[in-house]
Every structure is written in C-alpha cells, then in structure tokens.
Amino acid sequence: MTTKVKKAEIISLNNINKSYNDMRILQDISLFVEYGEFVSIIGPSGSGKSTLFNIITGLTDADSGDQKISTNIGYMQQKDLLLPWKTVMDNICLPLQIKGVSTKEARQIVKQYLDMTGLRGYENKYPNQLSGGMRQRASFLRTFLTSQDTMLLDEPFGALDSITKSKMQKWLLEIKEKLNITILFITHDIEEAIFLSDRIYVLGAKPGIIKSEISLDFHKEEKTMRLVSNELLETKNEILKLL
Ligand code: ADP
Ligand code: MG
Predict the structure, then answer these.
(1) Does 51 contact ligand 1 (Cβ within 6 A)?
(2) Which of 27, 84, 111, 188 gives a 20 to 30 Å CA spacing to 138?
(3) What digits encode the pLDDT tens for the residues 154-201?
C-alpha cells in the first residue's frame, strides 16, 4: 500500500492583513511553503510583495492574521546591501561575524562555497568592480550563510540584462539542489516565475490579494524544457488574464 506523504509546511500564513496610513496594502493573504519547494509570488509593483516578506521575517508587523514559521530564514532584500568599502569576502563574512564567528573561521567557511557559487577569483574585489550577476551571487551566498534552510529572495534578478538574468536563473536552480534549500521568490517577470517555480501565487494590486495559486506540474525534473514548451505560453496567458 502506498500512502501519499504530505511534506512539511515550513511557512504558513493565514489571513494576513496590512495597511499603511489607512490604505489597505495586503488583504487576507493565506499561503504556505513546503520543505524543499520553490515558490514564487508574482504581482505588479506596489502590490505589497516586499511588505509580505517584511512581515514573514518580522521586520514589519501584520495588522491581523497569523503565521507559523518553522524554518530558519535568510532574507535577500530587493536592494543590494553589499557594503561598497568592504571586499566581497568581507561582505560575505559579515553576518557570520555578527553571529560571533571569528574572522578566520568565517573566511574558512566562505571559501568552501566559492567554487560552487562561481565566486572564486572575485573574493578580493570590491562590489563596484563586479558585474550585476556577480554581485547577486555574493549577496546570495551572504544570505545563505545566515540561514542555510530557507531563502526569501526579493526580485534578485530584476535589475539584470536578459542574458545575465537567464544565466542566473539556471545558476539558482543548480545551487538550490546543491545546497538543499527551500526558496520563496518574488518577481514581476511571468516567464521567470514559470521557469523556476514549483508553485506560483499570483497577487493582484490595490489591495494585494491572492488571485490564484498555480502548480506547475510540467517538466518538473528538467525545468529548462519549460522554456520551449506549449505549457509556458498557456500558463503565461493564464497569469496575464489575472493581472
Ligand atoms: P511591491 O514590493 O509589490 O512593489 P511594496 O510592498 O514595496 O510593494 O509596497 C506596497 C505599497 O505599500 C506601496 O504603495 C508602498 O508605497 C507602500 N509602503 C511600503 N512600505 C511602506 C511604509 N513603510 N510606509 C508606508 N507605506 C509603505
Ligand atoms: Mg518590492
């Protein structure tokens, strides 16, 4: 007899509401993320996506609703927060040092990940000497080293040119497997969401409500196949109609 094992929900939000200055930003947001999933939230700008991440991470309080978080979360915010006066190595070490790890030990830890993330050879450069893609790799590694379990990524590739972006998307899928992490991802790029995700929540604007939850069950093992599939266009159409 086979029983379907329900995976563990590590993030679950129930009826989250949030207003700023009497303006309802998020309304009745309920969503969940299971261990190992890649879940995206897609919505127009101003729909409250970043606010939602701030609520999940506790930077902002919701007005009502509840949330259960049973995972360690690393949060890579929309803005690149690398310090310009520190090298890539020192930037990545920073959260470890804040946790009390010695500089020497922090560097040893970071070195173990340089090859995997493609940052080898860039560790002594300063952020402004890096391309946009490399900066995002450095931010990603720094965020990963704060949690190692679940990463909240807020439009990490939004500012990249389309060729770099497509390379970084493939990089992210590979690194997710290697590091064995769960990802909750914000984007306003529909194709990006369809390429990367196991599930997508579509957020409408003013107020931000969840309009739909879409499971992407095609080409799950070989996601690059999605980019040339009919399902891509079908799903894209479905999402466009909702936005
Ligand atoms: P998104 O990330 O989807 O673009 P945001 O969550 O950044 O949307 O913002 C949603 C809305 O909430 C916007 O209208 C924004 O101006 C407003 N907002 C966000 N943060 C604050 C804040 N701290 N104070 C007042 N208004 C805010
Ligand atoms: Mg945002």
Answers:
(1) yes
(2) 188
(3) 999 999 999 999 999 999 999 999 999 999 999 999 999 999 999 999
